[in-house]
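User: Some background: our group keeps a shared notebook of sequences we're curious about, and every so often someone picks one and asks for a predicted structure to add to the entry. Today it's my turn. The entry only has the sequence so far, pasted here. Could you supply the structure so I can complete it?
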Amino acid sequence: MFIETIKTPGLAHLSYIVGSAGEAAVIDPRRDVGAYISIAKQHDCRIKYIFETHRNEDLISGAAILAKLTQAEVKHGPNADGKVQYADIVKQGERFKVGHICLEILETPGHTKDSISILLFDSEYDSGAVGVFSGDTLFVGDVGRTDFYPEQAAEMAGMLFDSLQLIADKAKHAIVYPAHGAGSVCGDGMAEREFSTVAHELSNNPMLQINKRDEFITNKLAEQHYRAPYFSVMEQLNLEGASATNAPRIVSPLKLIELQSQKHGWLIDVRPVEGFLAAHYPGSVCLPVAMLTAYAGWLFHPEDNITLIAQDDAMASAAALHLARIGFDNTQRYVVGSFTEFAAMGGDFTTLDTLTAAEVKELQQQDWQLLDVRKITEYQQRHIKGSQQLFLGHLATSLDQLDPETHYITMCASGMRASVAASYLRANGINNVKVFMGSLGAWLNASYPVEG
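Assistant: Of course. Here's the predicted structure to add to the notebook entry:
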């Protein structure tokens, strides 16, 4: 028997392929499915089943694509918010043989109504579950969020409590294989490791220390989560089944000059922040590859036309793939950012001003507005007096609340999100903006006072 984990950077998504005796099953595949096919070939296995533990909100499932390529059967839990067109519905207690492995379905609603967990049995040895693919029901150090049905928030939280009790009853000594790791938007308190057991979680997971159902519900209702606008697009695509992705084509800097003049969609610069600050195309938005899946779905719309600015072909391909995983399929072209060549052709480029902690402190005395783009939970823990909190993801819907004549300083924890925010504001006509590099970290190192 083998189990391999496929991790998707940016989304902190974890999917799995498990196999035995020439057969394999895939759990929660991402849209680019090549890794599963490659691993199955390495183990000389045929992919027999594909399981989805729930209908994903934060990424496109690859189940429909993988099924077409392998003729595998797709299995999905009951009570989805619509018909899952490419899958068969499974229910509590159903079992599936994969070589010498047995996979058993547990209905574990709470995160979503259609959530399932999958018990893993090694039928050659004993009858106890050795593993549980827990989806977004149970994480390492946390449990799933329950706010996707606002009008039924308490009911969903109660369902999750019951589902966790079921996992504890059916798989107390099993290894936990969750659908997400630390950094996912589907939970806040996940550990920085991706291995655990149900028994360990029962002893150490804060949410599993709550034994009273009402108290658990109260705690879940008090949580604060952000829900990106693109989630609704993911939900619909994950009912219909998405198509395979297409790679963007390279264009010359001359073409970029033409695109700039036509205002043809968005220019997204996926290079590291330091490169963007030094020189970038006017009107472009700084969004490094590692941050794409976290914020592109907030700042842009999946139907937007996108041109990427990258250091090289590999960076552009990686960025396009990250975007495709969250449903952005109009990434049609990219430019390799050579600013000396661009300038020689008559193209314009610009820079973005940065500030030190001492300079920020001085400018605060001169009516510059400090704009803190961290999450509200971060801001409440500690913030600079006089700063205004505006989550980076909410910039697109808050532009009308910002005065183009005001001078803004963007800040976060280190300067990364602040750079994205400043570039987005400038691309939308708010030009009086500088970036506090180092941000709260630099402020604290300077021993300046904070609140919270």
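Suggested note for the entry: The two ends are 51 Å apart (CA to CA). The CA atoms of residues 92 and 106 lie 5 Å apart.
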